[in-house]
Request: fold
Amino acid sequence: MSSPDSNDPQMKRSNGVESAAGGVAPPVVDLHLHTTASDGQLTPTELIEQISKTSLKIVAVTDHDSTEGVDEALAAAERHPQLTIIPGIELGTEDGDSEVHLISHFIDPNAPGLQDYLKHLRNGRVEAARGTVEKLAELGIKIEWERVLEIADGAVGRPHIARAMEEAGYVQHAQDAFQRYLGNDGLARVKRPKPTPADGVRFLHSVGATATLAHPQTVKGLRNVLGFLVDEGLDGIEVFAPKYGNSDRERRLEVATRNGLIAVGGSDYHAWGTSEEIVPGDPNTVGPPLEAVDRLQAAAERWKAMIPTAPELPGNGSATGVG
Reply:
């Protein structure tokens, strides 16, 4: 895929950055979006329809441990020829007591070994979610597991438990549930088995896709984690995100440049409807440049050319059963 209008000078300089006429031009690239295939609230079709009304031209569907929304997003985009959809995924990994999320772009959903391993990860997510509901009950917060499944209508995650808690009146807003109960140090948090970040990078490369570090501001011991991931061949790091101010963005960009990483980013949109959530294409936000898309595609092509006969699965090497 060659990004549309990639040779247009105006497109090159106008992805949420200062335009020649002054002010901030609206973004044209968003490389981090979620749908109901994981914990987003919009179906892939609904997401693409919403995006089609914005300035965005190239977007990536990057659901947690799932590519199940990609085909629907691609089909929806056929009605909007100005849009290019990049198949992606967000892979959850863990380093000690820190979650490290990896975003992958230009992933082939049919790559050998990929879907078996993603199913393994999702099974682990379901068991952790069920354990969280049971732990909440011990704390006097009684929500029905069946209702959580109904809310999820697919892949189950903590946001669906939070919405069930809100619905039952235990919290005022779903996001409040994370403050005390569902966050990384929450009273009801049940962790699921995850690959290490290094294993995650190796696996993504083994199926011919890129690996970039998502929301680095949430990674504990970032300098150390980034150091060994760069040694593993990490392709990029999120630099452009609505939550970053100018100083944060400049600092991340310097880190990317120093380590030879592609500066990527996006809205990390889930359509949760919270007051602080930034919607894709917000004209006041800064997105990654088109150059990032070209560099990601080139990196993915290099990894695809190196695909081994059988991909090395992270962790215990088994794509069946749940640890």
In short: Residues 2-14, 18-22, 316-323 have pLDDT under 50 and may be disordered.
